[in-house]
Design brief:
- By secondary structure, this protein is mostly helical.
- The chain folds into two domains: about 15-55 and about 295-435, no CATH class; about 115-235.
- It has helices spanning about 15-20, 25-30, 40-50, 60-90, 90-110, 120-155, 165-175, 185-235, 240-290, 295-315, 345-365, 385-395, 410-420; strands at about 20-25, 320, 325, 330, 335, 375, 400-405.
- The strands form three sheets. A three-stranded parallel sheet has the order 1-6-7. The chain has a two-stranded antiparallel sheet with strand order 2-5.
- The two termini are about 30 Å apart.
Amino acid sequence: MGKVLHITGKRPSMRFVAPKFIRDSGRKMQNTTHFLDRHASARDYAELFLYLFGFEDTALLEEKRLKANAVAKSQKRATTINVLVKEQKPAAEIAKYQEKVKSLEAEFLRFDYSPKFENPVSRLSEIQAREDELVKLALDISVKVSNIEKTLEILAGAEDGFLSEQVRAIYSYAGVSIDGPIRDLKDVLAFHSELVAAKKAYLGIDLPGLLARRAELESEISSLSEAKLEVFSDLRSEESISRITQKLKELGDLKIELGRVEGLLDQQRRAASEAVLAQDAYAELLQSISQGLDLVYRFNRIFNRYFAFVSKYILGEVYKFNLGFDEGNGVCALDVSGGTANPEGGKKKAEVIAFDLAYIFAVNRLGLVRPKFVFHDSIEDIDTRQIQLIFDIAGRLPGQQIVSMLVDKFDPSEYAKYSSNQILALSEIDKFFKVS
């Protein structure tokens, strides 16, 4: 590629360039511009003809192919996903799955997996609330009982009455300070003892009731504890575990399906975004290519001058070529106009030859570093007069035209005229081009 085609990068490839200079099949000799295989795209031809017509930065052509492939790939992926979205309607599926997931998650929050209780979690909450209430009441009663018992213990602690020594000290001090306010300390102490006894009797009245109430509360609390154990035991039953396991599986399956349909929409969004980014990158590259098209357009103008001259000389008709490069999408609308519409056979081959010879003249005129040779296969069905004109033009060509044809197509004088230009011959004597 470097020595013959002067291509230093990877694009255009040998597979695309070679058919322009080596037309070794009937298809290539019958297609002036679209001589590549049937699978070649418009972008392939754009890449090739930009190179042929002198575009200098072939690295951009390589990048153009990569970005064009990225655009095609992203658009294909987006189209495929859009078809799936259209068929599966994931938006409606998401709403359905989300509702089911929400319902199952609510069941987990309710812990509704008891064969005996309709709503065990709610039942446990009720029991716990009642138990907390009773425990608080029992604690309050216990505090009261404790206070009463401690008070009675203190009142019963002194042999001659509660705080009798303190009363004596007070009245002794009063007797010294105040003359005769209280005449008989014993009467005071007796009165005080009566008060203490009354207090003890008063306190003792409430104690049996409090103790009885506390016993009732403790019994009810014990019953509630047993009720809680019953609910927990029911939840731990094999049937409950089976229901929980089944619900967990259902929830897992639902979330997998939900993830799938949500993922499909996410893929659609990502694919659309990637397609836009790929298209933007391609458009930016095309802008860079557009800035280097001056030589390409100039080559097209000069090429048409030679194409018009050569086609007029050989075919008697003026042909014109239009590259038709679209700077917006990077493809070429290659078009050859003039002459007979859709010629076939020998006349079409003559048109192809005129195109290729004009190309060599244009390359030489602009001094481009491009191949200046061409091979044309089987030109026998071209009119004899036109073959003579082709050979006459080839004799003045600033390059080389190689043709294959049968010797008997020439008359003896013509063969003598051109035999000195013969490169290889196949005959009974020189079989296999003299290769032994």
